Amino acid sequence: MAQINKLGVIGAGQMGNGIAHVAALAGLDVVLNDVTSDRLKSGMATINGNLTRQVAKKVISEEARSQALGRISITESLDGLADCDLVIETAIEKEDIKRKIFHDLCAVLKPEAIIASNTSSISITRLAACTDRPERFIGIHFMNPVPLMELVELIRGIATDDATFEAAKEFVGRLGKQVAVSEDFPAFIVNRVLLPMINEAIYTLYEGVGNVEAIDAAMKLGAHHPMGPLELADFIGLDTCLSIMQVLHEGLADSKYRPCPLLVKYVEAGWLGRKTQRGFYDYRGPKPVPTR
Ligand SMILES: CC(=O)CC(=O)SCCNC(=O)CCNC(=O)[C@H](O)C(C)(C)COP(=O)(O)OP(=O)(O)OC[C@H]1O[C@@H](n2cnc3c(N)ncnc32)[C@H](O)[C@@H]1OP(=O)(O)O
Ligand SMILES: NC(=O)C1=CN([C@@H]2O[C@H](COP(=O)(O)OP(=O)(O)OC[C@H]3O[C@@H](n4cnc5c(N)ncnc54)[C@H](OP(=O)(O)O)[C@@H]3O)[C@@H](O)[C@H]2O)C=CC1
């Protein structure tokens, strides 16, 4: 089994920067790619901020922080990923964008390298089929926030070979995370359970059963969830939540997965949650204020 020493990460958003952060701390060389230099700059600033917070909390040393930062390089071109042993795609949850990335990546990436997607919901088999190496393609699904969450789901496509699965498992173990293996069905395990709950919380708001604060307080205090479902939706990103519900609805053809029209409205408004500073809460002031 080939050892993974150099990791490529496509997309410098919240998941991409989290994966780059934990991989660099674990001693891997990381190349972070995104479409604009602004995105790369803000991704690196977030990594630096989160590493600095870990130093302040004595989770890591100052030396570990500076070594980790030194292991991450950035590139606006996929050519910069050519000699990586593993490339994880973490661009937005849109299948056409992911397919285009894999098409372009295969043209430059060394043939023996493994390709993975961090997709929350999309079929690994279908994504693998648009690459030149379906046997070396796998779903490696990290949870948000990556530096704090223990779990990573591994999803084999129909063609994924044993060596790829074992290399992915070893990689996840090196990052100090636990593996849950999921079959390749829409939204896998965590999101198959979590997203219908979030969607139902949005229906609860839409139908006027409770307001934002009441729904979140009910689930935090009444079910001991660390975040309320609407706060969590804002944290995940409302665009991502909608995309996952659409994949569940289309993939399982069951009306119980119908995305709530209010979720659609927020996404159409560009109110995507924390990343755009407005969602079920408005984050522009000193503390979050409910928008309903
Ligand atoms: C959509 C998908 O495909 C799959 C998914 O990921 S679904 C989402 C899964 N994730 C969850 O369900 C998260 C639920 N929330 C939680 O577990 C907790 O609220 C939490 C772990 C995120 C934070 O815990 P907390 O104790 O309430 O928060 P908080 O006190 O602010 O943070 C504790 C520490 O976490 C760290 N932290 C918080 N957010 C962080 C982030 N985004 N990145 C890195 N570190 C972070 C900080 O070190 C923070 O320390 P400080 O107090 O010094 O700032
Ligand atoms: N949010 C979550 O809780 C979780 C998300 N995921 C999955 O991870 C992936 C990323 O999600 P997340 O990090 O939250 O999303 P973000 O919106 O935070 O980040 C996505 C990043 O990808 C960039 N991007 C878009 N198109 C391309 C491209 N062609 N090439 C390279 N980069 C591109 C975006 O740039 P720009 O904004 O300029 O378009 C942005 O920087 C999705 O598949 C999502 O389903 C998995 C687990 C948890």
Detailed description of the structure:
The chain is of the alpha/beta class. It is built from 11 helices and 10 strands. It has an 8-stranded mixed beta sheet, with helices on both faces. It has a two-stranded antiparallel ribbon with strand order 9-10. Strand 7, helix 6 and strand 8 form a beta-alpha-beta unit. The longest helix is centred in the N-terminal third of the chain and has 20 residues. The structure holds acetoacetyl-coenzyme A (CAA) and NADPH dihydro-nicotinamide-adenine-dinucleotide phosphate. GO terms for molecular function: 3-hydroxybutyryl-CoA dehydrogenase activity.
Strand and helix map with partners:
Layout: E1 6-10, H1 14-25, E2 29-33, H2 37-56, H3 62-71, E3 72-75, E4 86-89, H4 95-108, E5 114-117, H5 124-129, E6 137-142, E7 151-156, H6 162-174, E8 178-182, H7 190-206, H8 212-223, H9 229-236, H10 238-252, H11 261-269, E9 281-282, E10 289-290
Parallel strand pairs: 1-2, 1-4, 2-3, 4-5, 5-6, 7-8
Antiparallel strand pairs: 6-7, 9-10
Helix pairs in contact: 1-2, 1-3, 7-9, 7-10, 10-11
Acetoacetyl-coenzyme A is lined by residues 50, 53, 57, 120, 143-145, 147-149, 190-191, 194, 226-227, 232, 236, 240.
